[in-house]
Write a structure and sequence with these properties.
Elements: H1 2-8, H2 16-21, E1 27-31, E2 34-37, E3 42-45, H3 48-51, H4 60-72, H5 85-97, E4 103-109, H6 112-129, E5 137-141, H7 150-155, E6 172-175, H8 190-208, E7 213-218, H9 234-245, E8 248-252, H10 266-269, E9 276-279, E10 291-296, H11 297-304, H12 323-338, H13 341-362, E11 366-372, E12 375-383, E13 388-389, H14 392-404, E14 407-408, E15 410-412, E16 415-418, H15 426-442
The structure holds 4'-deoxy-4'-aminopyridoxal-5'-phosphate.
4'-deoxy-4'-aminopyridoxal-5'-phosphate (PMP) is lined by residues 111-113, 116, 145-147, 219, 223-224, 252, 254-255, 280.
Keywords: Aminotransferase, Pyridoxal phosphate, Transferase
Pfam families: Aminotran_3
Protein name: Aminotransferase
Length: 444
């Protein structure tokens, strides 16, 4: 397996030579919050798969739901006017669950990048129906991540996610990330930073022309960019700006949905009602690929009265509403609610935050720690004053050190990313902290 992994799979983020020198982990089994690799080593998965395995690796109700659905109906299309029982039930559950955010209908996709793509397309189509075809542009935040499709890559706010794929969508522009550790204003006060970033958004909108902008997209907590937690109130200010200019707001909840931040959505945490929400990842806790784009009543109504764009095949994936995925989603949602994973994310998140602050005191290489619920970023720097980012070798050495200590971490740029399963216990939090401590000590 180790040999054929390098030989047969194209790994876009690990060079074959690197992989031969340092064989990557090949994961063979999972149980609870742990995974076991091909060498039989068991690791606490502090990444929760890829921000998605909220319920851990041995959730029997999801496994049973998948098995039962496979027996009943393994596939039928869910977008060409046909539906299946599970897709209707999950859509109902999602719109009920996200009613406080104003969500009224669900459209199913195959994952997060699809959900973003569908939301961007829906935004343009909405304005076409409304007779405002000039509203085609998109506004997003620097450091944001919205997937790998061309639309998503265009609204991504990190050069690394964009530069090899240009030209991207025209008419996409970015406002500064509301990031206290690094921002163009050198502002460390969160409330003042929120105001400055909101003013920069306003400025860009005025420059572009408000009536040319279809939608603004943001992650309530910017995940892949390094777990950047916007100041309290920023998302609300952004909503007010969108309202003032008639711009649709898309909350990309692919990571933040389903309890990760300690609330059922990042929008709810911020007291904001977006026009659309994009979901994926934890929707099935990683047990089946599935995503959803949710829309509010205003957009649903426009489509109901639509005579202009109706019937165009701009939406619809073969696996939209996949019955097995939807059955997994129904079970995952029920378990997430039953186990009150939002509450556990708050309680364990507090313990994790304390541990991270202590690591920052103990290790000078830690420049900043950021967290919300059970998502956290640890930014490593070679020097605290200059904030120079730690290099790739250091990042790999820290992750390897943590791995030696039995904890799986993810590296993103000069950040260590944590998004453990939400079923985490207090003992698991302590184990994660020990693992990171061991990793950081390894580069001292
Ligand atoms: N949006 C956000 C906020 C994400 O974090 C991701 C994936 N990390 C995506 C979209 C894309 O999701 P997927 O990888 O399922 O296509």
């Amino acid at each position: 397996l180790i040999e054929n992994n390098a030989k047969s799979i194209w790994h876009p983020m690990a060079h074959p030579a690197e992989m031969r020198a340092n064989p990557p982990k090949i994961i063979m089994k999972g149980e609870g919050v742990h995974v076991t690799d091909v060498n039989g080593r068991t690791l606490l998965d502090a990444v929760g798969g890829l921000w998605n395995v909220n319920l851990g690796y041995s959730c029997d109700p999801i496994k049973k739901a998948i098995a039962d659905q496979l027996d009943a109906l393994p596939y039928y299309s869910g977008f060409r006017g046909t539906s299946t029982g599970p897709s209707i039930e999950l859509a109902y559950e999602l719109t009920e669950w996200f009613k406080p955010e104003g969500m009224a209908r669900a459209f199913f996709t195959s994952g997060g990048s699809d959900s973003v793509e569908s939301a961007l397309r829906l935004a343009r189509q909405y304005w076409k129906i409304k007779g405002q075809s000039d509203r085609t542009k998109f506004l997003a935040l620097k450091k944001g991540y919205h997937g790998t499709h061309f639309g998503g890559a265009s609204v991504n706010g990190n050069a690394n996610f964009r530069r090899n794929y240009e030209p991207l969508l025209p008419g996409v522009f970015h406002a500064p990330a509301p990031w206290t550790y690094r921002n163009p204003f050198n502002e460390t006060d969160p409330a003042r930073l929120a105001q400055l970033c909101a003013a920069a958004m306003e400025d860009e909108i005025a420059f572009q022309g408000a009536d040319t902008i279809a939608a603004f997209i943001m992650e309530p907590v910017l995940g892949a960019g390094g777990v950047i937690v916007p100041p309290d109130g920023f998302m609300k200010l952004a909503r007010e700006i969108c309202d003032r200019h008639g711009i649709l707001m898309i909350s990309d909840e692919v990571v933040t949905g389903f309890g990760r931040t300690g609330a059922w959505s990042g929008a709810r945490l911020s007291g904001v009602k977006p026009d659309m929400m994009t979901l994926a990842k934890a929707i099935t806790s990683g047990y089946f690929p599935l995503g959803a784009t949710l829309i509010n009543e205003k957009i649903a109504e426009a489509f109901e009265g639509d005579q202009t764009t109706f019937g165009s095949i701009g939406h619809g994936y073969t696996y939209s509403g996949h019955p097995v995925g939807c059955a997994a989603g129904i079970a995952a949602l029920a378990e997430t609610k039953r186990l009150k994973l939002d509450e556990n994310a708050v309680a364990r998140g507090k313990e994790l935050a304390l541990a991270l602050e202590q690591l920052k005191v103990r290790h000078a290489i830690v420049g900043d720690v950021r967290y919300k619920g059970l998502m956290a970023g640890i930014e490593l720097v070679s020097d605290r004053d200059s904030k120079k980012a730690a290099d790739k070798k250091t990042m790999a050495a820290v992750a390897d050190g943590a791995c030696e200590a039995g904890v799986m971490l993810r590296v993103s740029g000069n950040n260590l990313i944590l998004s453990p399963p939400l079923i985490l216990t207090t003992a698991d939090v302590a184990k994660i902290a020990e693992g990171i401590d061991a990793g950081l000590s390894a580069v001292k």
